Automatic annotation (TrEMBL):
<dbReference type="InterPro" id="IPR042088">
    <property type="entry name" value="OligoPept_F_C"/>
</dbReference>
<dbReference type="GO" id="GO:0004181">
    <property type="term" value="F:metallocarboxypeptidase activity"/>
</dbReference>
<keyword id="KW-0482">Metalloprotease</keyword>
<feature type="domain" description="Oligopeptidase F N-terminal">
    <location>
        <begin position="119"/>
        <end position="184"/>
    </location>
</feature>
<dbReference type="Pfam" id="PF08439">
    <property type="entry name" value="Peptidase_M3_N"/>
</dbReference>
<dbReference type="InterPro" id="IPR001333">
    <property type="entry name" value="Peptidase_M32_Taq"/>
</dbReference>
<comment type="similarity">
    <text>Belongs to the peptidase M3 family.</text>
</comment>
<dbReference type="InterPro" id="IPR001567">
    <property type="entry name" value="Pept_M3A_M3B_dom"/>
</dbReference>
<protein>
    <submittedName>
        <fullName>Peptidase M3</fullName>
    </submittedName>
</protein>
<keyword id="KW-0479">Metal-binding</keyword>
<feature type="domain" description="Peptidase M3A/M3B catalytic">
    <location>
        <begin position="200"/>
        <end position="582"/>
    </location>
</feature>
<keyword id="KW-0645">Protease</keyword>
<dbReference type="InterPro" id="IPR034006">
    <property type="entry name" value="M3B_PepF_2"/>
</dbReference>
<dbReference type="InterPro" id="IPR013647">
    <property type="entry name" value="OligopepF_N_dom"/>
</dbReference>
<dbReference type="GO" id="GO:0006508">
    <property type="term" value="P:proteolysis"/>
</dbReference>
<keyword id="KW-0862">Zinc</keyword>
<dbReference type="GO" id="GO:0004222">
    <property type="term" value="F:metalloendopeptidase activity"/>
</dbReference>
Length: 602
């Protein structure tokens, strides 16, 4: 029987037939006309402000109108970004993305007076309005934002920030994406883009890995002044905005980040302190991996090396889907069926394309609510785990598709919980099913690699960004200095586990150039350790005979957009993540994984 053949490029024609379709243009025209009408309607706010019943009806009408406009803007933005991921140089995708950003920015500018009202209402008046079923859908979001009411600028200034950000702040992030698509490399006599070159870092051939690493580094070296300008512009913007907002109470960059991540600063401080104490686990994993590879001079080009047993194993895309689906199904049958559905419907884009962006991600359309996964699939075990990671995000989005849009928006900290939980399901299933020592070694290798990534590499990124923000407060940070800051951060966390570091990592890693978020990296560490704790608790309950663990996990994910991380853990796990005990429990599981890896290498 022939295996199922899945499409490996997105099938988005039912959203819009093409980027230049008349249907899309009609929707954009409708959205623009509706936005003009909405702006006029919001202009009447002063007439109803002091009439409780009229104000409630007014706010309901604003929300319904805005939602229709936002759905169009969201869908067009996702479609344009999707095409831009396949081909970062596509001119129509760039143009359409710009139009969608402008529409969304203009919508939020129009809504600024209403947002200002809701965030500044006296408590009694707010409590009365939020009892309305429709307005109450934004209960958690509004309460969360009201905590920073003292950071709000006057309405006109908020509108200016939103408007300038479209081509200012976000323009720098778009420039970085253009660079990713533009850079061409020659490796082993073949010309390729960064996405294909990055997959070669997982090659079993160390000489090829080194050639790919050197080519990627050289490519970014040629663009380092541009990337330095991008990082300075992004961080300069954030710092200046914080200064303007902080006339009453100045928040530092990490305070702002924690608010965006829906965690307390105490939670982040405890997480990083406990991880620093445990960094030796990641370093130990690297040493064990180096020994197995027979390498005495482990370098950054070796960080994605596969285990020696996997030297010639290429996993077809269809087999990867089946591996993931079976692992998901062992925990939740619907989760397994969902993974196959994603592939069958063409909701995964995996085939290499010219000018393709690097990395992998999950996104979603707003109407209909459908997730999409992007990955450049080359058949490595690392690709399989990455695909499982993104399908974990997609499952999260699928589970909450019936919720109001404001409750379908969750912070990165909790987003990464779903993705890494999915990774853990796949790794655990593969280890249990392994029939040979080589197979067990391969899975244990993946667990050890995770320990090294999350306990060393991710914190090094965090330390670099802390240093970058601190220096940007004093002035422009040069490319040379950015390289030095990277080496210092890697030295703090990798210490002697590598013989050399990756001074251009700040340029090569897209996470530092994402416009919408500073400190994009620590949520991965949070998600890694949090998901391990969730996984361990749920599996213990399943082993004890409980039959509703899949439903308990679904319930946890459905709450991620309507409570803080601390509230979520208290409700579903009965623990306090501001305390070290929670993280120590997860780190003990990492220690077990590293020990298991050591034992399988004999």
């Amino acid at each position: 029987m022939q295996p199922t053949q899945y499409p490996q490029q997105w099938q988005n024609q039912h959203i819009y037939p093409s980027l230049d379709s008349s249907v899309l243009e009609a929707d954009m025209s409708l959205a623009r006309a509706s936005l003009d009408e909405l702006s006029d309607f919001i202009g009447t706010l002063g007439l109803v402000r002091d009439q409780a019943d009229a104000l409630q009806d007014f706010l309901r009408e604003v929300r319904l109108r805005a939602q229709r406009i936002r759905n169009i803007g969201w869908n067009v933005a996702v479609l344009a970004a999707s095409k831009g991921s396949q081909d970062a140089l596509d001119p129509l995708a760039k143009q359409l993305a710009s139009r969608a950003r402008a529409l969304n920015a203009d919508l939020f500018k129009a809504l600024a007076p209403v947002e200002d009202l809701m965030l500044g209402l006296p408590a009694a008046e707010f409590e009365h309005l939020i009892q309305d079923p429709l307005l109450g859908e934004e209960d958690y979001r509004l309460r969360h934002e009201r905590r920073l009411q003292d950071q709000r600028l006057p309405v006109e200034a908020e509108q200016l920030v939103i408007g300038l950000g479209t081509d200012g702040l976000h323009g720098w992030g778009n420039l970085y994406n253009d660079l990713v698509g533009k850079i061409r490399l020659t490796i082993a006599g073949q010309e390729m883009g960064l996405a294909q070159a990055s997959n070669l870092l997982s090659s079993p051939d160390r000489a090829l890995r080194r050639e790919a690493f050197d080519a990627i580094s050289a490519g970014w070296a040629g663009e380092q002044e541009t990337v330095a300008a991008i990082l300075n512009a992004l961080n300069g913007w954030r710092l200046e905005l914080a200064r303007q907002r902080g006339k009453t109470r100045l928040l530092d960059a990490l305070d702002v980040s924690c608010h965006q991540s829906h965690i307390d600063r105490a939670t982040l401080d405890t997480l990083m302190a406990e991880t620093h104490k445990a960094r030796g686990l990641g370093q130990r994993a690297l040493a064990l991996m180096a020994g197995k590879l027979g390498i005495s001079d482990l370098g950054p080009e070796d960080l994605f090396a596969p285990p020696p047993a996997a030297t010639s194993r290429t996993i077809p895309f269809e087999e990867a889907i089946e591996i993931i689906a079976q692992a998901f199904a062992a925990f939740d049958s619907e989760m397994g069926a969902f993974a196959r559905m994603m592939a069958e419907r063409g909701w995964i884009d995996a085939a290499p394309t010219p000018n393709r962006r690097t990395g992998a991600y999950c996104t979603k359309f707003a109407d209909p609510v459908e997730p999409r996964v992007f990955i450049t699939y080359a058949g490595t075990m690392d690709n399989v785990i990455t695909l499982a990671h993104e399908l974990g995000h997609a499952w999260h989005n699928w589970l909450i598709r019936d919720l109001p849009m404001s409750q379908r928006s969750y912070p990165m900290t909790l987003a990464e919980t779903a993705s890494i939980f999915a990774e853990t399901l796949v790794r655990s299933a593969l280890f249990e099913q392994a029939q040979t020592q080589e197979q067990r070694q391969a899975i244990a290798w993946a667990e050890a690699d995770g320990a090294a990534t999350f306990l060393v590499n991710i914190p090094a990124r965090f330390a670099f960004e802390q240093a970058l923000v601190a220096e940007r407060q004093k002035g422009y940070v040069s490319a040379t200095r950015l390289c030095a800051l990277t080496d210092e951060a890697w030295g703090t966390w990798y210490e002697g586990s590598l013989v050399r570091y990756h001074p251009l990592f700040w340029a090569a890693k897209a996470h530092f150039s994402i416009a919408g978020f500073g400190f994009y990296n620590y949520p991965y560490l949070f998600g890694y350790l949090f998901s391990l704790g969730v996984y361990h608790q749920l599996m213990s309950r399943k082993a004890a005979g409980e039959t509703n663990v899949a439903q308990a996990y679904r319930a946890l994910l459905r709450d991620t957009g309507r409570m803080s991380a601390e509230e979520l853990v208290e409700k579903h796990l009965g623990q306090d993540i501001r305390e070290a005990t929670f993280w120590q429990g997860s780190l003990a599981l990492v220690a077990d994984a590293v020990t298991r890896f050591e034992q399988t290498q004999g």
